[in-house]
Amino acid sequence: MTLLSRYLFREFLRTSLTILAGILVLFLCVTFLKEADDFIRHKASLSQIARYYLYSIPGMISQALPFSALIGTLLALGALSRHQEITAMRAGGLSLFRIVLPVFLGGLLIAVLGFLNNEVVMPEYTARAAFIRKVEVEKKQQRAVFQTHKLWLRGPDNSIANIDLITPDRTEMIGVNIYKLNEDFSVRERIMADRLVWDNDNWRLKGGLRFIPDGDAVKTRPADNEIYNVVDKPADMGMIVKSAAEMSFTELWDYVRRLKSSGYKVVRYEVDLHGKLSYPLASVLMVMIATPFSLQRVRSGGAARGIAMAVLIAAIYWALMSFGRALGLSGALRPLPAAWLANVAFAMLAGFALYRMQKNM
Fold first, then answer.
1. Any idea which of 70-74, 151-155, 261-265 has the lowest mean pLDDT?
2. Are 125 and 44 in contact (CB under 8 A)?
3. Is the pTM of this model over 0.85?
4. pLDDT at 45
5. Is the C or the N end of the chain the one with fewer CB within 10 Å?
6. How far apart are CA 339 and CA 278, in angstroms?
């Protein structure tokens, strides 16, 4: 990379990261103002509040990265254009492609960092933030312990339940093993069931068998349609079922695969799965579409014009992304094109804008 390329790359990253920091401060302030009453009502300590927002930062970064790249491009290249530095580079024999290539590489780096944040950092930190909010602050009981593919729940009558899978609508649990314990924690009874279904305000076992130790033998009894209220109602499973934000791409992929193999429709999770790839890539598209606007010969407006343009572009992208998601959830579009609708539209628009830029300059 030449000295000039390093300069352009550094200016873009410096501006984008500065904008990212500003967006994070804004996010934190707005979020705190919205949630302050809840923290006061539950008498949360300063430590709990600080840790909650600390663990919320990776999720905020995930949302803000594409727009920091957008504003960073508009401001960094816009400043070079206003100060005639772009004209000087062209006069020195550099093509537009060579000038903007370091910025495109910077956008690609931001996209990669965004994906790594979504895959490695954000799921764990989002889960920790939810734990602090629900368990430490709101004093709700933690009833679940997650393992690689299953979870354990504390149930009634001194029992624990091992659940293989919970459906997205939270009305069915698949692959249920229930262990009822004595005071010394020995197993007095075990129940295996295909499903645990919410039916008539109770959780009922379906396809269940009861195994009762009797000396050296084990007695078997049917347990079909028996009530086992492991939680009061499906709405109480908010701390049990992981949200898509709390799962990495590989975890969500596995969850979707296992649900589909069990015969359930998982449109919402499929849309979120494809969104884990499409949204980080938006950083590159934002750089591409912002570049032609940045290089226009504008003598006035400066940073204010760049930020106003960024807000407009971001609003259009957000509207398209929300529209595509709504089409996916309604079934009007398959999950893959629904998640990529905004990116495809912006890629076409960016390609056209870059073509016009090359032709006119």
1. 261-265
2. no
3. no
4. 93
5. N
6. 7
- What digits encode the pLDDT tens for the residues 237-269? 655 667 788 888 988 898 888 888 777 778 888
Closest to 100 measured CA to CA, from 274, 360, 359, 358: 358
Tokens of 226: 């028996």
pLDDT for 87 beyond 80: no
Backbone Cα Rg of the chain = 26
The sheet with strand 202-214 has its strands ordered as 144-146, 151-155, 159-166, 172-181, 187-199, 202-214, 217-222
The whole-angstrom distance between residue 238's C-alpha and the CA centroid of its chain comes to 16
Tokens of 215: 């000396």
Q: Are strands 159-166 and 151-155 parallel, antiparallel or unpaired?
A: antiparallel
Do 338 and 277 form a contact (C-beta atoms < 8 A)? no
DSSP per residue, 53-99 = HHHHHHHHHHHHHHHHHHHHHHHHHHHHHHTTHHHHHHHTT--HHHH
Q: CA dihedral in degrees (66, 72, 73, 74; nearest 10)?
A: 110
